[in-house]
Design a protein that fits this description.
Helix content: 25-40%
Shape: elongated
Order of helices and strands: HHEEEEEHEHEEEEHEEEHEEHEHEEH
Number of helices: 9
Largest sheet: 6 strands, mixed
Number of strands: 18
Structural class: alpha+beta
Radius of gyration: 24 Å
């Protein structure tokens, strides 16, 4: 696979040069990939967000038949703000066997490998297609991929396997937790702090709701799965704000909460319980003083967990092709659960380690890229009548 490493590094250098931090647009990168594929004779579809500021990309290479494999990656990266980098984050810097740059491991390394292998294959030899799907806004809650999944659902054909190339050190992963992120807005009634009984203190009621949430977190620890770390679902409040001045009873308070739950856990049951406590226990007391009081919830992000049976043939093939004895689980979430929920068997497997992701001086080792290229070659050969790399 060293034959394809120079092309991979060339592609990775270009991909890293695009600042696709989630708050920024990814259109420059998407346009580059679209034109690059077009030069190889492959026509990609661009799926824009409503504002046309970001986009997904999807391409189907080979025969238009059901089956085949989708190589899935997200184009956005986390910010570099406040991090002390020794290398320019949006330039690929090669230092010995490491490739430094934001997104090298999470997850432009996998995208570069996929593009390198796709552009050297002979599409005429494919019995089933190779798909490539690139998404936006994964880092802020797997937001953009919903439209990509909907697009695949609308097609007369769809892949039978999705390989999500998140950094797993090239070990197949068949499980991760799901996530629901909510924002709670508590609206009370302001008044002078000398007359607190006349107001409805939004911070006080928010704190009572948060206390209830913490009680639910303790309950979550009773259901465990030793394959995960931590081995139970978790619930926490991550941000909170409210109030204008100490001498004013605050009429507004908001906080964000996050549930990361084990695959198979009924997340909706817990969330509905929290909402019911707010509506049935807190709100009646608030409205005794002010009819305008309210407690509302907004879903910021949601994606299901991933669980794939170990006996699944595709998983067994990937384990064999990567020389791994058993699948792993990861603590972070991926788009794999959404693909799985749409009926596409999904496995997470990609180069690099999350130990290097999201940090200053993020890097990926060349050896990991070589291992990824080797796996992709085996995948492509499996879809072909014979080895068809040109």
């Amino acid at each position: 696979m060293n034959d394809y490493l120079p092309l991979t590094l060339e592609l990775l250098s270009k991909l890293v040069s695009f600042d696709t931090t989630s708050r920024e647009s990814n259109l420059a990168l998407i346009d580059y990939v679209q034109h690059y594929l077009a030069e190889q004779g492959f026509q990609a579809e661009i799926l824009y967000n409503p504002e046309r500021t970001k986009a997904n990309l999807v391409v189907c290479i080979g025969p238009r038949v059901t089956g085949g494999i989708l190589l899935s990656g997200h184009t956005d990266v986390v910010p570099v703000d406040g991090q002390q980098w020794h290398y320019p984050p949006f330039s690929l810097i090669l230092d010995n066997e490491r490739c430094y740059g934001r997104g090298t491991t999470d997850m432009k390394g996998f995208i570069a490998c996929s593009l390198a292998m796709i552009t050297v294959l002979d599409a005429d030899q494919l019995k089933k297609p190779v798909w490539l799907g690139l998404s936006y806004d994964e880092e802020v809650g797997c937001l953009g991929v919903h439209d990509l999944v909907a697009y695949l659902d609308s097609q007369p054909i769809k892949p039978e396997l999705c390989v999500v190339g998140e950094p797993t050190s090239m070990q197949p992963v068949n499980g991760h937790k799901g996530k629901i992120a909510l924002r709670c807005q508590v609206k009370g009634k302001a008044c002078h702090s000398a007359y607190t009984p006349q107001g409805v203190n939004a911070i006080h009621y928010a704190s009572r709701l948060i206390h209830f949430i913490l009680d639910q977190e303790n309950i979550l620890t009773t259901e465990r799965n030793p394959r995960f770390d931590p081995p139970f679902s978790t619930l926490h409040v991550g941000t909170i704000s409210g109030g204008e001045a100490l001498n004013i009873v605050p009429d507004n308070c908001k906080f964000d909460m996050e549930l990361r739950y084990l695959p198979g856990y009924s997340a909706s049951f817990l969330i509905e319980g929290i909402k019911a406590y707010a509506q049935q226990q807190l709100l009646p007391n608030m409205r005794e003083r002010s009819r305008d009081s309210n407690i509302t919830f907004e879903t910021l992000a949601a994606y299901p967990g991933l669980h794939l049976d170990e006996t699944t043939p595709w998983l067994q093939r990937l384990l064999k092709w990567t020389d791994c004895s058993s699948p792993q689980t990861v603590s972070f979430g991926t788009e794999g659960g959404l693909y799985q929920a749409s009926g596409i068997t999904s496995v997470v497997c990609g180069p690099g380690s999350m130990e290097q992701g999201h940090k200053a001086d993020e890097y990926i080792e060349k050896g990991q890229l070589v291992q990824c290229l080797a796996l992709l070659e085996k995948i492509i050969q499996h879809l072909c009548e014979k080895s068809s790399l040109r």
